[in-house]
Amino acid sequence: MRNPPFAKPTRNRTTQKISNRIKYLSLSLLSIGSLLFSPSSPAILVSDADPVVLYSSTEDFDTIKENIETAITNRGLLVSGTLHVSDMLNRTGKDLGFPEPLYIKAESLEFCSALVSHRMTQADPVNLTMCPFTIAVYVKTSEPQQVYVAFRKPILAGEAQTVTAAIQEMLHSIIKEALDE
Fold it and tell me: Hey, what domains does the chain have and what are their CATH numbers?
């Protein structure tokens, strides 16, 4: 049913959700920018628009990985899985047309927080897609003395500014502890 021409247009639920998400994304980008551009943050910004945060270290891969696992468990969380990304890419690369390996070693650590998961899904049930959290650790073949640590910037649906900031802080603090910064 159409509104009469003199009636105030009503916003349907989809329009309202889109509007809320745009407001959320704007606020999230501002909070991410202020967090990542602060002088105390040792994160390397690939680009403001990139969906990842990147740190680097000259420590060896195994030490950094172990430190990340320890930092995760120090928060009462459990590493639920380790993805051996470089093994899979190196094993399949030649058959898929990528003969030169990109990584000497690359692994992703998966973990979750029940409290944060509840907070995320209360903001919007679709935020379940952010579980588990993942921190990647890798060494590129082109830079064998440099270990990189990265995570995806969380962008959540619904009214989730507070939990987004908490997730960012958790991920940053895990990495900073692991890198002894």
Answer: 13-178 (3.30.310.70)
